[in-house]
Q: What sequence folds into this?
């Protein structure tokens, strides 16, 4: 593992404005994330977990501070450059699965590879491979609405890791799942982290999952309250 | 492409509406152009066949409209020029003489038209309108007249009519000609006022053995008013070759109503087409915009995953293109199919009162349709282009979504 952080934030701030009302969501976050980490960011509702993930993923822009991805400041990037960065360096898993309903499981998984311009044969091969690794290859030709929530979220994980991104950001990936399915999903992500070396950073408020992570960042009121490294990644 | 087709299938009602927004204007325009084109062709053919030919060679004169044509003493040099021009399909000599027709003290002012029966049958419909007796035959003397005139003069086939020539440039001649046929004229003034006789008899009437008033010419490969360029080119060539004192008068001068109608019809059709295009475009914008708004979250997701904005535009445009091309193809097929079906049944017969109005305008009493290939292609290409231009707005709007805002969007 390199000592250079994969992501570094300095005094990261985000304040939402609605008319004259300003609502601070993040109030100066300093964090470093390294390759192959499996990190959860926890905290009560409104603590800024999702906001932090959106900023790290280039889906939103901070109102203060800076984010460095592999040493490069993200604030200098245009919208199109941010889109390219998301496509090539970041994998996303969203709370509500967010699969494209008109695409099959295989096509959903291969979709980001298509965005990257990878030829059809290669993207099908890579998508099949990851679906196989995640144990959902049998659903390859099913549409999302024909499979369960847990399976849909596995597809979302497959889509997030198929491009072999620098980091996978997952925003409450188990929020809509029952306990057993949630634990399965986290174990699956953990396995990908260990076997493929994928770096995960996910938000959760589910304490049952926290003993599976090797680093836990706790946010309270938009600030890092605790940063607890439990065992080496 | 596959995803675009699935999106379209997902909301069949909206897709069908967009498809119809292209299909209906294309179908209507193909049908309308088919109708206009067939009627223009009918008018053009009727006018050029009944009256003018594609062009005529005449003696130059200053004369009032409808006045008597000056006499050409010798048509031989004209015939030589026309026969040497390969674009001239054929020509026929005509000698029009104002005259008085008289039978047993009953008289009627008429025009005598001396014709060459063997060639004039190709442009005059009179042969096909004969209701009693027969049409003129080459080498024999005779006259054919309309039913109205036959009734006024109480004439039947086999009886003789006395013709008294009144051409200002010729000596007054009198001729007795046997009536060989009676025709039912498409218009009453023709039926009352025109007697066709063989050219030799007409020349005898003006006492000029080589005279004519016009050489009527038809040009090769002219199938309708869309081929007027061929007529113009040939007329120019003949004009350039004519000796002084002669002129070429084309169908525009001879049948000005047809030319005016054509000049009016074209811009009108294009204005109507423009209205259809605009309405189609509005429906396309509306339905695609709704479709984009309905898929806000999905588009947000695609952008969040790293799609370029251009690609998002491409997604919407691909769907629009599929519907526009399919709509145009189906529209053209339906329009052309309907035209072919109508024509297979011989056109649409008009009620008597409308048929008479149409006949008085030089058209037939049956509405015909014709596949106007050029304009059909134009409509089938222009409408999808308009639809795609219209689709640019919803496509651009989709590309402007902010990923997170779009993903949080609640319908």
A:
């Amino acid at each position: 593992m390199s000592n250079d952080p994969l992501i570094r934030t300095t005094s990261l701030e985000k304040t939402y404005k609605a008319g004259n009302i300003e609502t601070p969501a993040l109030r100066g976050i300093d964090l470093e994330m390294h390759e192959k980490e499996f990190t959860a960011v926890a905290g009560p509702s409104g603590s800024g977990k999702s906001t932090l993930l959106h900023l790290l993923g280039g889906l939103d822009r901070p109102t203060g501070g800076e984010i460095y991805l592999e040493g490069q400041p993200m604030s200098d990037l245009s919208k199109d450059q941010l889109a390219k960065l998301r496509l090539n360096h970041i994998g996303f898993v969203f709370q509500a699965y967010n699969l494209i309903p008109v695409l099959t499981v295989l096509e959903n998984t291969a979709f980001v590879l298509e965005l990257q311009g990878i030829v059809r044969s290669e993207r099908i091969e890579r998508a099949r491979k990851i679906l196989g690794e995640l144990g959902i290859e049998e659903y390859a030709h099913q549409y999302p609405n024909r499979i369960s929530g847990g399976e849909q979220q596995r597809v979302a994980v497959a889509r997030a890791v198929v491009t072999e991104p620098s980091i996978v950001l997952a925003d409450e990936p188990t929020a809509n799942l029952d306990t057993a399915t949630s634990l399965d999903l986290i174990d699956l992500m953990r396995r990908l982290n260990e076997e493929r070396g994928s770096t995960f950073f996910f938000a959760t408020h589910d304490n049952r999952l926290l003993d599976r992570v090797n680093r836990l960042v706790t946010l309270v009121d938009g600030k890092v309250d605790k940063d607890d490294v439990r065992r080496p990644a | 492409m596959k995803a675009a087709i699935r999106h379209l299938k997902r909301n069949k009602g909206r897709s069908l509406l967009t498809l119809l927004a292209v299909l209906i204007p294309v179908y209507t325009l193909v049908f309308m152009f088919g109708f206009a084109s067939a009627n223009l062709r009918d008018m053009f053919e009727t006018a050029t066949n009944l009256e003018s030919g594609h062009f005529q060679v005449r003696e130059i004169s200053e004369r009032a409209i409808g006045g008597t044509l000056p006499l050409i003493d010798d048509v031989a040099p004209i015939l030589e020029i026309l026969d040497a021009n390969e674009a001239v399909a054929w020509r026929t000599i005509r000698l029009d003489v104002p005259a008085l027709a008289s039978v047993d003290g009953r008289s009627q002012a008429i025009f005598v038209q001396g014709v060459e029966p063997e060639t004039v049958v190709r442009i005059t419909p009179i042969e096909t309108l004969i209701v009693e007796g027969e049409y003129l035959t080459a080498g024999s003397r005779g006259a054919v007249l309309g039913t109205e005139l036959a009734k006024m003069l109480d004439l039947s086939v086999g009886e003789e009519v006395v013709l008294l020539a009144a051409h200002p440039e010729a000596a007054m001649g009198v001729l007795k000609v046997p009536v060989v046929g009676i025709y039912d004229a498409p218009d009453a003034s023709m039926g009352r006022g025109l007697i066709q006789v063989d050219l030799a008899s007409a020349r005898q009437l003006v006492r000029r053995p080589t005279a004519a008033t016009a050489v009527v010419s038809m040009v090769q490969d002219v199938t309708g008013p869309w081929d007027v360029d061929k007529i113009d080119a040939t007329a120019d060539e003949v004009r350039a070759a004519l000796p002084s004192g002669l002129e070429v008068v084309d169908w525009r001068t001879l049948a000005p109503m047809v030319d005016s109608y054509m000049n009016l019809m074209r811009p009108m059709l294009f204005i109507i087409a423009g209205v259809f295009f605009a309405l189609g475009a509005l429906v396309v914008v509306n339905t695609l915009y709704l479709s984009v708004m309905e898929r806000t979250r999905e588009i947000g997701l695609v952008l969040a995953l790293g799609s370029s904005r251009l690609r998002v535009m491409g997604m919407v445009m691909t769907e629009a293109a599929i519907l526009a091309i399919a709509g145009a193809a189906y529209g053209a097929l339906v329009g052309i199919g309907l035209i072919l079906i109508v024509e297979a049944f011989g056109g649409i017969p008009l009620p008597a009162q409308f048929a008479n109005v149409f006949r008085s305008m030089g058209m037939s009493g049956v509405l015909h349709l014709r596949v106007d290939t050029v304009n059909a292609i134009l409509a089938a290409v222009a409408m999808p282009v308009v639809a795609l231009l219209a689709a640019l707005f919803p496509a651009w709007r989709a590309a402007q979504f902010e990923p997170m805002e779009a993903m949080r969007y609640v319908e």
About this structure: Residues 55-221 of chain B form one domain. The radius of gyration of chain B is 31 Å. Chain B touches chain A through 20 residues (CB under 8 Å).
